[in-house]
Amino acid sequence: MNFDGILFFPVTPYSADGTIDHDVLAQHVADGVASGAGGVFPACGTGEFHALSAREAASVVSTATAAVDRRVPVIAGTGGALAHAVEVAKAAADAGADGLLVLPPYLVGGTQDGLISYVAQIAASCGLPVIVYHRGSAQYTVQTMRRLAQNPRVIGFKDGTGDIGTAQLIVRAVAEEGRDDFAFFNGLLTAELTQAAYRGIGIPLYSSAAFAMIPEVASAYHRAYVDGDEVRRIELLDGFYRPLVALRDETPGFGVSLIKAGLRLRGLPVGSVRAPLVDPTPSQETRLAEILEAGRALL
After folding, report:
1. Is 90 known to be catalytic?
2. What is the Cα–Cα distance from 78 to 167, expressed in whole angstroms?
3. pLDDT given at position 106
4. Would you call 153 helix, strand, or coil by DSSP?
5. Which positions of the chain have pLDDT values less than 70?
């Protein structure tokens, strides 16, 4: 599966009554593809998968796939309780998704054999290829990833832990299994902050939440990153991403909340986040507006 460009994780917009606003979602996704996204990941972390019912997740994926119209791959989120994950996976396949991002199981932590079974059952339930998300209650050892790489339905690994040493060993183990088709992603919050390090260990792709709210700045960073223009990359890192990360770290869940606030500031009515996440305070939103303006000024 070819991901040529930034990996776009759209938000899930809500109307005033709390239901999903599919018209706004379709516009949001179409705008992202038009801005150069190399893949669209609906109903994942930035899309508040944790707060969606199985039916809602299915509807989000259906709207996103229609808006993408086969221009780039669509990878739908699934995870949580196994029965819920299977239900969501089947619905994603029916909606036309190209693959799945398997988020961690809910609350419990199992053995490595249990994680392998969890991934295998989700993949077998719908026939879609899967990317595993390495974080929280789903932390895969090097040997586990070696075994998962023997399953042709497992096509990728997304790191959300920041353990560079383990990630490097996983990259090498998968290569030793002959998988030259495997996709590796940096999935840390505001991945632009760490991507230079990940590129050095053979993980060239990254998810960009910032792309969802300010694609012009995220695209400028990506161009500098791909071109090896370190002067330009550092300029954008210092002028935009570092202050954004500082604001993000003030409140748990702001990896999502700030993105929605940034979209509202741009005039897209995506609504608030669902509990337990919270929206920025007025003063935080003012600071976000200043950070976004500073980013645009760098262009």
Report:
1. no
2. 22
3. 84
4. coil
5. none
